[in-house]
Amino acid sequence: MNLPEWLTPNLAIFATIGGVAALAALGVVVLNNAVRSALCLVVCFFMLAFLYFTLNAEMLGILQIVVYTGAIMVLFLFVIMLLNLGPMKSLIQQRDPKMIVGGAMGLALAGMIGAQVLAPLVGVQEPRAPEGFGSPQAVGYSLFSGYLYPFEIASILLMVGIVGSILLAKRRI
Question: pLDDT tens digits, residue range 6-31?
């Protein structure tokens, strides 16, 4: 079987992973059950991590799984199940003018993604990441050399948030 030259194995892998991620993202928006919607978000996060792995950015892929899929989504699911939310109203039933703006922005995003997918067909060169991009060594060097002060400020803000949430949650006797 003769395949076209633009249909590379990398494109097939990207299309598969990206298609599953797009379907999962659509499930987040369309499903009425909040738990199922959150589980679709978990699938979408996993697919994004796999896309990072295909780009040789292993550190970002592992962080995606550990931080977002592991920690954030567990919190989301815990809060959703704790609140015991009923089925949500369908977005189609609500006549909200913001839906027109959201739809237009969604179409614009789909157009930009389509332009990126079709760019190799027209002969546009694929951009290449520098050697070692996304590796733990490169991330650590960048984080602790050029971004040391923003990193420390973020850690202080997180510490203040943790202490504030503990004080707010503490019951008065």
Answer: 677 778 888 899 999 999 999 998 88
Give yes or no: residues 83 and 163 share one domain.
no
CATH of the domain at 29: 1.20.120.1200
* Domains of the chain: total: 2
68 part of a folded domain: yes
Count CA atoms closer than 13 A to 143's CA, side-chain side: 13
pLDDT digits (tens, 9 = 90+) for 63-95: 889 888 888 887 887 777 777 666 656 555 566
Q: Residue 7: is it exposed, middle or buried by C-beta count within 10 angstroms (0-12/13-18/19+)?
A: exposed
Grade residue 96 by pLDDT with cuts at 50, 70 and 90.
Answer: confident
**Is the residue at 113 inside a domain?**
no
Parent domain of 28: 1-88
How far is the CA of 98 from the CAs of 76, 111, 133, 150, in angstroms?
Answer: 25, 20, 39, 35
